[in-house]
Amino acid sequence: MAQDLPGAVLFACSRNRVRSPMALGLFKLAFGDRIFVDSCGVRVEAGEEADPFAVAVMDELGFDLSGHVSKTFDDLDDDSFDLIITLTPEAHHRALEFGRTRAVAVEYWPTPDPTLAQGSRDEVLSQYRDVRERLAARIRARFERPVTFGG
């Protein structure tokens, strides 16, 4: 069941190149600018861009990830989030540490790593699409309010 919408959401994963940027893009497609959203990672190399396969599968939905540059929790412009959604165990641990001194809820959404996919380009893209669709379903389930008669 959907819950009240937060004012600011952070998606966090390990490297901020695939899962958390895709979640950010899906969230922006669903909510536009109504809710502030950002993403970060735990182990980030300076200047790393989004994974090309993540860019390709998000482009299929009309969201451009090509300008995304990875960042860590320490690189965030604003750290006043209502909710941090972690997509990897490593990010979850870091988010709990980050949230110790802040009034922030932390949720863990275990998400497979599509960078481990092997095979042809089409097979790899299929794994990335699967992760994208899993994230989209979780976002819909968590944030979209149920439609009721007259309201």
What does this protein look like?
By secondary structure, this protein is α/β, with parallel strands linked by helices. Helices cover 36% and strands 13% of the residues. It has a single domain, classed as Rossmann fold, CATH 3.40.50.2300. It is built from four helices and four strands. It has a four-stranded parallel beta sheet with strand order 2-1-3-4, with helices on both faces. Helix 1 crosses helix 4 (121-143) and helix 2 (52-59) packs across helix 4 (121-143).
Mean pLDDT over all positions: 91
Reading the helices and strands in chain order gives EHEHEHEH
- Shape, principal axes of CA atoms: globular
- Give the C-level CATH assignment: Alpha Beta
Give me the number of helical elements.
4
Proportion in β-strands: 5-15%
Examine the secondary-structure arrangement and name the CATH architecture: 3-Layer(aba) Sandwich
Which runs of at least 5 residues are low in confidence (pLDDT < 50)? 146-151
Number of strands: 4
Oligomer: single chain
**Lateral strand order in the biggest sheet:** 2-1-3-4
What structural class results from the helix and strand content? alpha/beta
The domain count comes to 1
- CATH topology call: Rossmann fold
Work out the radius of gyration.
15 Å
Instruction: Report, as a whole number of angstroms, the end-to-end distance.
Output: 16 Å
CATH superfamily: Response regulator
Name the helicity range.
25-40%
* Sheet with the most strands, sense and barrel status: 4 strands, parallel
